[in-house]
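Session log. Operator J.P. requested a structure for one protein chain; no other inputs attached. Running the standard single-chain path with token output.
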Amino acid sequence: MKQWITRIYTQVPLWGYVLVITISLAILAFTSSAGDSLTVDESPHIGAGYSYIVTGDYRLNPEHPPLLKLLSGASIWIGSSITGMSVNFPTNSDNWMNKVNAQWDIGYEFLFRSGNDANALIWWARLPTILIVLLGGVYLAYSVHYHTKNKLISIFALFLYAFSPNIIAHGRLVTTDIIATIGFIMSIDIWIRYLTSGRSKYIGCLIGVISFSFLAKFSTILLLPLFLVSGFGYMGIKYWGSKQLRSHILRLIRDGIIVGLGVFIGISLVYFIAMRNMSTDTQLQLIEESFPQNNTISDTTKNTLSTIVSIPGMQYFGHYLLGQAMVIQRVGGGNTTFLLGSFTNQSFTSYFPLTYILKEQLVTIVLLGSLTIISGIKIIRLVYTKSFILNKDWILTYWYEWTVIAMILLYWFISITGNLNLGIRHILPAVALTYIIIAIGVVRILIPLAFSRYLLGILIILYGITTFNAHPFYISYLNMFAGQNQGYQIFTDSNLDWGQDLKRLHTWTKEQNIDTLYVDYFGTGDINYYLPDITVIPIKSSDGPKIGYTAISATMFQDSFYLKQQNPDYQEYWWLKWRKPDYIIGESILIYKNTKY
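Structure written below.
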């Protein structure tokens, strides 16, 4: 049996494994996406992306870079050309003509109030994200193989990535999380190739991948401190005490300046495409309305940005800086967060650690925990026996691994100390990079220590089965630590309830022969569009209990208790607090049947 498995492993080339795993990921992504209704952030992203394509005006959603939105908008445009589908954008709407950033209203009008086929638009808009998550997996496999020279490590890293419920969940939506994750993977890969080879041929590649990353999501700015530490650290260790140190440091600075100029041009070109017809007056109005506070920081930000965008040729990069400034403002402001029965309008220090523990597969946690413990024991033994020697060549040989670990730690530090708790999608780059480290650790540490290959095989099979079993509920996926049907008592928002289950709610009403439904829905989808033959009566907790079936999004249910804390006169869902839902749709919509008040 062992020889048979070994023969298959050695005879099947790497591309064969990559192909099979990627096809499996594609099947899971496409089939699960078909059952998800529009999620919260997709509405403004889809409307904004299509507006960039057809109007060349970047007034909508400036707090996110344009790359994924442009691709989604272009996909809709191409899809309409291929299928003959009519697509109307509401440029005659008051929200477009008289406002500069009515992104939520425009997104809703575009999808549901302009005579468009919303399901078709959403399918075409999501297509680029799915292609990116697939191509990103292929890139991950081959980049890991390049740096480790180990086929098994690259296969295992791709397997963990492709069958991760969290990667699949956000690898099918018009959001910036997965494209940013791929940006981190590519940028670290090319950066290490540049450092270790000492070849300037990688400068062009660096410009490309860093531009891609910065245009994917503003959080990728974290690559800058990583590159500074990694670059100067590598040169310092390799050439310490050598006369070549100064020349290599100067070369690093020179190349950094070249890359910086290239990235500036790359960002400006893409922003030009998105805002080619946008006037400076609209930009200035957008800047003014984006920072309404009257304080020194806000005024300085507005004045600085207004000056930059007024300089000929700088309006494009100035729009990028506007987005960065808006993100910093939002992070400082915080958001309302629910966690295990508690609320805060700032952040929980334990939020992301608990999110990782409850939303990552148990197999991942077991392997990561085992590697951490075993590595710690080995280091302690080496220190105790005075055998721990930091060899320069050994450190430089594994510089890729050290850089990946450094990025993971930096991302965790920023996430835990930051002021936004918005779900595991906000630490997705760290999640994906951890798969690389786990794969390296399993092959280089666990297997040589006689870790049972049969047990490892069981864990791998369990990992795959868990993902197939979770289909298609990847957004609301929680592992066994969370308990069954208890997600709404732990998380809300994008960790559980992002408006994704309206299609499944409609299917349930048909199965139950229900024609009237009270609904308190969290999301940007049109309830009547998704439940066309149901009498939908919108409610909120302050309306009191109703006779019949009531569907409440988990986020709206828990938010009612937060509103009660803020205002003692507010009526929360007190009559349902200690009652289990009669049904739960996709873990995110709670169904209660009331027969009396």
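Operator note: The chain has three domains: 1-278+350-369+390-438+450-476, 279-333, 501-594.
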